[in-house]
Structure formats: C-alpha cells, structure tokens
Amino acid sequence: MANFFSNTWFLDATAEVFFPGGGARTGTVEAGGQHYDVLLEPGGRPARLPLADFLEPRENPADSRPVPFLPAVARDRVAVENGKSVIAPAAMVPAPLVDWSRFDSWDHFVHECTSRSRNAFRRHDRKLAQLAAAAGPTRFSLDEPDHRLLEDALVWKSRQLRQTGHLDRFSSPRNRQLLHRLLDGRHMKLAVLYAGDQAVAMQFGHADAERHSSWITAYDTAFAHFSPGVLLLEHMLRVSFDLGQKAFEFLIGDEEYKYHYATDAWLVGPVGRPPVRERLRSFAKSWISTREEAPPAQARAVQLARKGAQRWLQRTTLPGPAIRSAIWLQRIDLDQQNWPRGRLEQTAECQLVGLLARGARNASPVAIGLTRLRAAAGVQGHKAWRFVTARLSPPPVREKREPLGLKPGDRVRVRTPEAIEATLTEGRSNGVYYIPSSMSAFTDHTFIVERSVGRFYDEVSGQVLKARGAVLLRGARCDGSQLAGGKGCDRACPVFWSEAWLERAVEETAAPPAPIASPKPAKAPFQAGDMVRVRAVDEILSAATNDELGYSARMMGAFAGQTFRVSGRAHKAYDERRRRWFDAGGALQLDDVQCPGVPLVGGGRCDRGCTLLWRDAWVEAAAPLN
What we know:
Elements: H1 8-18, E1 25-31, E2 34-40, E3 65-66, E4 69-79, E5 93-99, H2 106-116, H3 124-135, E6 138-141, H4 147-163, H5 173-184, E7 189-195, E8 198-207, E9 211-219, H6 228-242, E10 247-249, E11 264-272, H7 276-289, H8 296-315, H9 327-335, H10 351-360, H11 365-392, E12 411-414, H12 417-421, E13 428-429, E14 432-433, H13 436-439, E15 446-458, E16 463-477, E17 494-498, E18 502-504, E19 531-534, H14 537-543, H15 553-556, E20 563-575, E21 580-594, E22 611-614, E23 619-621
Parallel strand pairs: 1-3, 9-10
Antiparallel strand pairs: 1-2, 4-11, 5-10, 5-11, 6-7, 7-8, 8-9, 12-15, 12-18, 13-14, 15-16, 16-17, 19-20, 19-23, 20-21, 21-22
C-alpha cells in the first residue's frame, strides 16, 4: 500500500509473525537513486509482501544498501485532468489520490467533483434518505474493531472479485489473518455505514495525520440500488478533509469512479532489472491476463492457471504460535472450509444442520469412508463413460429456452418427461439435475411457484451454493422413493426445478376445498390428518430438550400460535453427505410449514425451503379449521 513502510508499527509488530522463515528485519534500500523502507529476508533480499500496493521514496537515510530491483514503487506523480483516467506508460499502473492542498474549502472540492461527473455528490443526500426509508435510520461509524464485520466485508469483496474474473487474494488464510492482525492491533480502522442495525457498506483502511489510505471497500449487493459504497466513500472524503490531512489515497486501481474525485495519481512500476524468477512471474501474469479471447486450447490453459493460482492462495497457511490463541483466528479456522462461497450466519439456527448432526452420531468412520470411495469411483466411471461416448457419437441437440422470469405466486405447468429430456446436458439444465425417479410424478401437472432459489445450504459440500434459474413449487416435494434398497426417506426435501422444465399455465379458478370431518381434537402422539397448534415460544423453550433437532426461535417462532394439519412423521432419513440412513426420531411434519431461510453471511437468506420438523411437545391439539 502507499506509504506502507514509513510507519514501523507493521514491521516491528508483525514481521516475524507474517513472514515465516525467521530472521526477517526492517531496513532501507536504494534503487534507481531513491531510498525505500522495506522488509528484508534473512539473505538480505527485499521480501514480496502480501496485499502491498507500492512503496514511496523517503528522505536520504543514514544507512542504506543498494538492491538491483524493486517490483512496485511510486515513481512519478501526475495531475488528473477533468476527471479523465490517467494513461500510464508501459509496465506502470496509476494509483489515484486527492491532494487537499488544491482546495481552500469543502464546497470547493464538491463543486469540482460535480462539474466532472453527475454521480459525484449530486445524489448523496437523496440516496441516503432512500436507504433510511427502506432499511432503517442510517449512521456512519468510523472505527468498528469487530472481526465479524471484517469477515463479512471480505466475503463481499471476495464474491465481487470472483464474479468479475479477478484473482481472489482474500481467499488466502494468510492474507486474511494479516488483515485481522492489523485490526486487532488497531493499526487499521474499519468504517461502516449502517442502515438500521445492518451493515450495508464497509471500508478498511489506515489513517494518520498525513493521509487516509483506502485499502478495501465493499458493500452488500442487496442494497446496490442505493450505492452504499459511494455513500461511505464520500463520507470518508469529508472526514479526511475535516481532519486536515494532506491526501486521500485510493491506491492502485484504474476504476472510473476514483477519477470522479482524484486530483493526482502516482505512476507505480518496477525499478531496476528484474531477476529471472521475477521476469517469469511477470510473463505468466501478462499471458494469463491477455488470453481472455484466445483460441480454445489457450483459453483452457488460462482457466487452469487461474484455478491453480487460486488453490495455491487457499493453501497458504500461517504457522506460528504467536497468533494462534487469538479469538478472531479461531473463527477464521472454523470458516476456512467454506470460504469464500458463503456460509450460514449461525449454524445452530439451521435445523438441517442439527438433523445431519443426528445422522453423524455413532457413525463408523470406516463405513463412511467406504461409501464415499464407492461414490467417488462411480462418479469417475460415469465421467469416463461420458468421455468415451461423446467421441463415439455427436452430442445431441439440446433445446434452448429463454428464462421465464418466474415470481412467487405464478402458476406453471411441469413439462412432459420428453420435453424435459430435450433440455438436459449430462442430466442437468443450468446446473439443476433432473431425477426421473422422484420428479416424473410431477410432470404434466400444474403448480404454484413458492419461491425463487438464489443461494442455499448444500449438505454434501457443507457450503452455501448459488442456483441459476431455479424455483420451488408448492407441494412438489421428494418422497424418497428414488433411494436404493427401497428404504425411502421421510425428510420431504424440496425439489429444485429449472425454469427450462416449466411453462406458464392459464389461471384456473380453484374449487373451494371440501370440509374435512374431524371428530375431536387429537391427543399426542399425533398422526397424519390431526390438527395441531404450535405452542408459544416461551413454552417451547422452557420444555425444549437438548437434542440435535433443535428449536430455533428466530426461524420457527413465526409459526407460534398458528394451526396446521399434521402431514406425517419423519422416522427415517437419508444423509446425502455420508450416504447412510439414520433414525429421524419420528418428528412431526406440518402442511406447508417451511424454513423461512437462515440468514447468510454477506446478506440474504437460504432459499432451500426445508420442511421444518416438530416435536410433539412443541404443539398441542387444536380444533379443526372451519
């Protein structure tokens, strides 16, 4: 980062921790006639530091040693004219900044920015008011030493980088530990824009008497319409000006929005002749970045190179007992297996997680390992068979359909099995698998769209995945009949439907349901057809037992006091992750009672819509509905 090493707090406090190998020390080197503070490896070579943007020259020191090469230093400073991007010479990149000495007042700066762009400051107050009306009162916090919030900001940034095809450096455990260490030592500050009690935008950066450096800016995409990232940025610009700082630095990056505000830019590039390994690194990076539209063979090689780099980042761990006892590190260790695809905010609120924990109880590791081995062998064999058959016969022509844009409440008809088969590629459409044994019974029938599926918890991978063009249909649930051996499964999981398998249906006038005779309110244990009322939250919590099924007031409390019909009991369930059956405990299933969705880190809720299970003690007998 700019001026990264002029402050010795980072070097003195964390050099030996964050750069394994021992003996790392601070030092000053000379390259290209300028002097720079660096971190030196045991052999005396300047270290390549994670997440560092560039070095700035310093005054002539009393002691320095020459080095042949530095990869990224601030070499020249140029003015930004009329908000236009700076055209950097070859091998150099711009790093925009705001020089406050150019403005005698805040209004002068705002006027300059609004004359460049219609987006800068013009809509600040209106967007802030709209955000407050939609999500609650807004407020800015300049210093939130909360590691949970920092994790959320990194999830947002990680998702943005992957969606735009960039290398996700925040998937590296070492890089994330570095950022948490800096926050833990109060060397960096996390600024947050709140709407109600929810953080909608965050900025992680460093500030001193001289300047403010914006390292990481991220926002919740659920509030993108209100431009929360811009609102927070403009607020931080005002704070920097009011504090009398000399500059506000955006660091390396040629994004257009930075030039709405920037007055100058550093031109960052290498100094000296790079060694062979550095030239190979630069060549590989350039080759990957310039082969986006290459022939298929090269494009595939680029994809493999990016995947390899991403996996290397995710494997970079950080040894050293000096930080392993930190509270925030324990949380990172728990989250790493799911990073950065997403995760549940609180696993205890997800009944599915508890149900799977019940299935894992007393499970033999040997038996689980064998079932996974057999499943993996079957998958590999299936892939090999597809590879052979694809070359012996031309691929079939698949039907391509425009998305229907379905919304909850829309009436649709499931297409015939033949029509569905015409949309499948390797058994799926848009990543959603079609399972004839459990889904063919619903074909050529009309249903109501329950909800669209965005992100959902996947029990096999333990990750939060994203579905494309998938919906849930009211009443279309798996009956477990497709499982081998005829053992079945009583979990009544929702079935995901690709929009390619559906067509809009004509609205029909539904006939009034016939009254169901029910003599007297049933008594526990309840059976299918009985009417029950869900007890109050306090009653359930006072009587709840500590079992794996669990009762979440946040997820299940909304059904308190309501009356439902018992649709059945869940006696046996199949664990897809461990590929084994287990006893579900005979929990009750209630008609049309689905999980409203556990909150996900980074915003949004799980859209899986699992059937909630209930203990007999959580409900009471009720009179039939009229």
